[in-house]
Design a protein that fits this description.
Shape: globular
Distance between the termini: 54 Å
Oligomer: single chain
Radius of gyration: 27 Å
Number of helices: 21
Structural class: alpha/beta
Length: 659
Amino acid sequence: MAVTGVGNRIARRPVPAATTSCVRPLHHQRHVGESKLGSCSSRIRKQRGGCFPGPKAARGEAGADPEEVKRLSAENAELRARIKELEAFIEREEAFHVASAEAAVEQQLPGAVEVAAEPVDFDSIPLPTPSDEKPFWESIPVRTLSATSGSGGAPAKPDGFKLNVVHLTAEMAPLAKVGGLGDVVTGLARSCTARGHDIEIILPFYECIDEDLLEDFKFEFDFDCPKGCEWDGSFQVGSLKTQVFTATCEGIKMVLLRPDWGGDCNIFKGGRVYAGSYNETEAYLYFCRAGLEFLKVSGRQPDVIHLHEWQTSAAAMLYWEIYNKDGLHKPRVVLTIHNMDNTGECRAEEFMATGMSGDAFNTVEKALDERTIGHNPERLSLLKGGVVYSNAVTTVSPTYAVETSTGGGGWLSGTLAEYQQKYHGILNGIDDVMWDPSSDLYLPCAFSKDDLSGKYFLQRYLRSGLGLEDPASDNGSGNNRKPLVVCITRLVPQKGIHLIRHAIWQTVKQGGQFVLLGSGHADGDFRHLAENDFKDHDQVKLILGYSESLSHFLFAAADIVLVPSIFEPCGLTQMIGMRYGALPVVRRTGGLADTVEDEVTGFTFDGTDEGSLDVALNKAIDWHRTRASKWEEIAVSNMAADFGWSRSATMYLDLYRSL
């Protein structure tokens, strides 16, 4: 069969027998070619001279190890079973659209594809219900895009120069993702890689990392990483054996560092990132030293070492105090502050985990936290040390850069103002390959700015699956318009939880529907509301937790995306919402102020009180109800806006070159 299609759905028609077996949508080939099946069969081929064991070996030919033959036979049986599973998976996927199907198949079989306009029969897609055996967002196969471009899948043109950049980070999506940090690191690295630059990410090898997400995964070597400790009242420097693994993930080169867990070391062990039983300050101080030591022992001389957040800030301090004088002479250092909530408080003796005493940094000019002067003990701020020692410092939006250097950065504002000449605000991008309504692999149908019928169907689909009332709005064009307000957030004070709580009641009062997807340590009130006031409610659904697949459904169905943050360095939610045809209601701060214009792309408010929120939210709900054509005009315009990484990556590359 060959693929014919129209963006929303894929139809199929017969093709010559000689080509039939070759046609596979791109993500089918990825699952087969890059699953454990592929790596396992490759391993067997290597063991048997490049091919699977033949009939003679299977019968126990002279020289063949019977145990090895038995093991290989069992492994082959496992592979056959896996092949059947994959074939069944492919058949199930026939019901869903394929991202960039036309381009993918043309790449495999030039000239073998004929695109035919074909309307989508939404009635053929069954609607889910809350009583289904499992939630609808878990019923669709989760597929991963291996993109090489941040421009909606279009190949990026190589730059006329080539830089070698190494990112040292605690997070990288999808391997180790907790918040937006992981998405940003992946988006920036992938965009620069697509433009021909040599990009590597050095990441802790957390015990919780899913190795199935790693391609070309292999162990490289061990090295001894200097590590200090206090022993019998004195500071002593020893070493911790560190294992180096390399891989690729999402098309990006990876280096994963893991301490030897053979002894009593438990660094990076645990079921979640940041949720292990180890001391995080000690762990990331060790990781900073290990990352630099790896660069030294491997002979690498990158142009730039790009650090992220307090977790890797100490690497800037160690680089200029130790490594720049010890052979690692070429790199310049960039530090990106994603969120100033945590400045990496650290006692001088704790800094010994790097193998270097913290006393060298215990001055106001370097890394001393001024708030602790006169305390016993005084403390360092790793983030401050990173700011002082880095060649350039960035944060994730222009407005947040201004806010944090003029008082909004708390006690660190003075340091940021002092180093204002090297402090830059560069707006984050979003992964516009993963977040693309025209090719979203989580959704049963797609839509675009040229045809919103898929979005209107997905609103019916979501309402049905969550048990919300269907307003029967005649595909969004009737008079009975009931806006769907969506809030996808961490439930922590920064995100304006008192405003989110109020918005639930206010939305219902104004005749709208509200869906919350969120988790965090401040979820108590929302849990109470979910189990009492809004249990089995037909206008409100509060889902406490996080689901990547459900978030795609919510963005696709949303009319309004609510982001009432007290402060927001950048924010990705509002940009993703706009890409999916929603209008955001946001508090005008940080990156929200840089991306949302009142009554042009969404609705904004300035205060932190409920009355200020009401003005913007009520206006949004009223516009949705009374200005249908204007609403759709803004939604379409939002979808056409460029929120990808291309422009932001250019700014980072220009900054790298300037150093």
